[in-house]
Specification:
Blueprint lengths: L1 E3 L22 H9 L7 H4 L6 E5 L6 H15 L7 E4 L5 H12 L10 E5 L12 H13 L5 E6 L2 E4 L4 E2 L8 E2 L7 E5 L10 E5 L22 H4 L5 E6 L7 H12 L11 E8 L10 H9 L3 E6 L15 E2 L5 H15 L7
Parallel strand pairs: 1-2, 3-4, 4-5, 11-12, 12-13, 13-14
Antiparallel strand pairs: 5-6, 6-9, 7-8, 9-10
Length: 353
């Protein structure tokens, strides 16, 4: 499945790869170009692949409509017994967010469908420039999806295989812009070393079992809506991110809460009613003292407050603040996605308006 991005991009001047328009080429043509240089015996060349253009956008403009369409189609395909896995060609800018959305959303399914792999991939160079990286990344993603050890939602780029929960884009322009921090990649796609019987053949070398990164089964007593709610609902709960930093004044947070009391803001992505706040705290999820009274006010208004950390690496200790909770180990952006999904799926009395 394809959503556009740089992999489908086109540069007016191939010698200027930084100047291009994303999302110009269809996935069927890109896939045919990808497999054309492969040997006829290559498993990727012989894989039974169906291509589908879910969207055609620059991933910086990722919308709820595209997410819902992608989630629905991925879910439908994974439920088919003759489908072994799904590959998603995506822009790099928000690939980590879409990967985590699929990871968290598909984990709400009663049937454990994430035993099949969902592999996202992307490119840092448009399709028509010299040494474009998209074709190799797409081949690698399919190779990972074909691997019998692959499971869960993964992201493949520049030979590294990352889990959806830990991966982040940490470099703006490098061909390998993703990192999983201290967790490290789950696997690598690489050519065979000389001692292998078929020198030059490409292998997936697993460093960790991806099965260990699939969420455990949720508590059976939790009241939840069916997973179809995520693509059938016209809106998702509105969750904002608040950043704690030096010299924080609390004015922006106060204005946000005052707007909820006076008049809801214009409708954009999600509901106009504020239902959640993710606090991107410093260090061990610490928050500037000027923000604390307004976070308490938000909790009293019925807004779910979640604390996380701005830090890219390192675990955090248990949060004892009574009015807040922490989504352990998630970036602020992924914590926001998790909270949006949890609010929509878990709360039977949720009022979006």
């Amino acid at each position: 499945m394809a959503t556009g991005g740089t992999m489908a991009g086109w540069a007016p001047n191939p010698n200027e790869p930084g100047v291009y328009q994303a999302a110009q080429l269809g996935i069927q043509g890109l896939w045919e170009e990808c497999i054309s240089p492969l040997d006829a015996a290559d498993p990727v060349h012989n894989a039974q692949i169906c291509t589908e253009q879910v969207a055609q956008i620059d991933s910086k403009d990722m919308s709820l409509d595209v997410w819902k369409a992608l989630l629905r189609r991925v879910h439908e395909c994974l439920m088919q017994p003759d489908v072994a896995g799904v590959v998603v060609a995506h822009g790099s800018d928000t690939a980590e967010e879409t990967a985590f959305m699929l990871h968290h959303a598909l984990s709400q399914q009663d049937k454990p469908i994430l035993i099949k792999p969902v592999v996202l991939t992307c490119a840092m160079r448009p399709a028509n420039v010299p040494a474009a990286d998209g074709p190799q990344n797409l081949r690698d993603a399919v190779r990972v999806a074909l691997d019998p050890k692959a499971t869960g939602v993964l992201l493949v780029c520049a030979g590294d295989v990352h889990g959806a929960r830990a991966v982040q884009k940490v470099q703006a322009t490098a061909l390998n812009p993703f990192s999983s921090g201290i967790a490290g990649p789950l696997a690598r796609v690489q050519s065979a070393p000389n001692e292998r019987p078929h020198d030059g053949e490409v292998y997936v070398t697993w460093l960790k079992s991806p099965a260990g990164f699939i969420p455990t089964q949720r508590a059976p007593q939790t009241r939840r809506r069916p997973i179809q709610t995520l693509w059938e609902s016209p809106e998702w709960p509105r969750v904002e991110i608040v950043w704690s930093h030096a010299l924080a004044s609390g004015w922006a947070l106060q204005a946000l809460l005052n707007a909820e009391v006076s008049a809801p803001p214009p409708k954009r992505l999600g509901s106009p009613k504020l239902l959640g706040l993710v606090v991107a705290g410093t260090g061990n999820c610490t928050v500037h003292e000027s923000l604390e009274p307004f976070l308490q006010q938000a909790a009293q208004m019925g807004v779910k407050v979640v604390r996380t950390t701005r830090c890219l690496q390192g675990g955090v200790q248990k949060d004892e603040t009574p009015s807040t909770s922490r989504y352990q180990g998630l970036s602020p952006f992924k914590a926001r996605i998790a909270l949006m999904i949890d609010l929509l799926i878990s709360y039977d009395d949720l009022n979006l308006t």
